[in-house]
Amino acid sequence: MGLVRIEWRPLAAHTNPANCAPHLSMKRIVGSHIHGFDMNWLADLDRLRTGNLPVAEPLSIDPSSFQELLVVVGRELKIAGLEKIEPPPWREADFFGI
């Protein structure tokens, strides 16, 4: 696995560039999403796309809490035990109005 970014509850929607896989091209994503390595790797050029991993797809499950996020991240990145991480000192209600 290479470089991956997961955005949880982003403040703005994400739109993919036109020059990517047809099923992702210009896709507008509202909600949590993953910028995977494979969808941003240009094999013919042997490099990543420019622009901070510009291609993304929605997460299969949009986590509704930090603990759910850890489960999804663990699954997506194949990391065991993330659920043992203590929640951060901030409260979700402070940021998400819940």
Describe this structure as you would to a colleague:
This protein is an alpha+beta fold and 98 residues long. The chain has one domain (5-96). Helices cover 21% and strands 16% of the residues. The protein contains three helices and seven strands; from the N terminus they run ββββαβββαα. The protein has helices spanning 37-40, 66-77, 92-96, and strands at residues 5-7, 14-15, 28-29, 33-35, 41-42, 47-48, 57-58. The strands form three sheets. The chain has a three-stranded antiparallel beta sheet with strand order 1-4-7. The protein has a two-stranded antiparallel ribbon with strand order 2-3. Strands 5-6 form a two-stranded antiparallel sheet. It starts with a strand and ends with a helix. 10% of the residues are buried. The model has no long low-confidence stretch (mean pLDDT 90).
Give the gist of this structure.
With 98 residues, the protein is of the alpha+beta class. The chain has three helices and seven strands; from the N terminus they run ββββαβββαα.
Task: Indicate the structural class.
Answer: alpha+beta
Count of helix runs: 3
Principal-axis shape: globular
- The count of β-strands is 7
Major sheet characteristics: 3 strands, antiparallel
Assembly type: single chain
> Approximately what portion of the residues adopt beta-strand conformation?
15-25%
Main sheet: strand order: 1-4-7
Mean pLDDT: 90
| End-to-end CA span | 34 Å
User: Which bin fits the share of residues in helices?
Assistant: 10-25%
Helix and strand sequence: EEEEHEEEHH
Poorly predicted runs of 5 or more residues: none
How many independent structural domains?
1
What radius of gyration results from the CA coordinates?
15 Å
